[in-house]
Amino acid sequence: MKKIPILLLFIFLNSYVSYSSDDWGKTGHRATGEIAEKYLSKKARKEINKLLDGHSIAYVSNYGDEIKSDKNYRKFSPWHYVNFPLDSSYEVHPKNHKGDLIVGINTCIEVLKKSDSSKEDKVFYLKMLIHFMGDLHQPLHVGMADDKGGNDLKVKWFNNGTNLHVVWDSKMIDSYGMTYTEIAVNENSLSKEEINDIAGGTVIDWMYDSRALCKEIYINIEPGAKLKYRYSYDYMNTVLLQLQKGGIRLASILNDIYS
Ligand code: ADE
Ligand code: ZN
Ligand code: ZN
Q1: Residue 47 CB coordination number (10 Å)
Q2: Most buried among 92, 194, 198, 218, using CB within 10 Å?
Q3: Total-model pTM
Q4: Which ligand is nearest to the CA of 22?
């Protein structure tokens, strides 16, 4: 008799887990961190090594998500994304008074640039910056409030119920089956010009770059879509390029802070 409620509880917990989102999954954030390492200046590498106690950027890249469930860090939750309607712009649409991804990134940069910031603050905001630069390149983190960046847009991934946000956070990357180091090593080679192009611009420019991709994603999706191999064929190279862009631009910010 007891078996049925336990089975129901299991099904409930299972569906809850598959609907919750965690930003670029762990692999995505680590790949971005690993790619950033390759583009760091000597000076930046030395300063970052001191702050991270010798740990790699990839190692700390999921810190921003790890603290999410701690209520002492609740105020940072809205800093993981920025939302505005598809037909509006960041400048025109009323901002979230609790902050957003742009406020988050700019705050981290400010703290790291200030000579009188405590070491403890510098360590914290460096780890948050590393994480947020990953989020900035997940196109659905530059999304719409209406559907919480695709979290409310239900789809299937190989017959399992999930949502569009999670497909972009982790499902495609996990199905790809590479570790973060393999992704970083096997990245498509970019020319010097392409790398310079990617590294140039402002945080706002980079946000609109992700936004263009977000718009394309919405043009090509129907609620309830059954996504499988075809979706990865269409978008996995885009995902890999986003991870590279995140790494190159993170390094660009860090090289500027420690120049
Ligand atoms: N919650 C609300 N909007 C979100 C978004 N765009 N990305 C992640 N989580 C969200
Ligand atoms: Zn996410
Ligand atoms: Zn995040």
Answers
A1: 18
A2: 198
A3: 0.92
A4: 2
Q: Domains (ranges, CATH) in the chain?
A: 23-257 (1.10.575.10)
Counting Cα atoms < 13 Å in the Cβ hemisphere of 184 gives: 21
> Residue 188: what residue type?
N
Residue showing tokens 């760091």: 40
For residue 76, the CA-to-ligand 3 centroid distance in Å is 10
pLDDT digits (tens, 9 = 90+) for 53-103: 999 999 999 999 999 999 999 999 999 999 999 999 999 999 999 999 999
Separation CA 19–CA 152 (nearest Å)? 9
Q: What is the DSSP letter of 152?
A: T
Nearest to 35 by CA among 199, 209, 256, 168: 199
- Residues within 6 Å of ligand 1 by CB: 80-81, 83, 140-141, 143, 148-149, 151
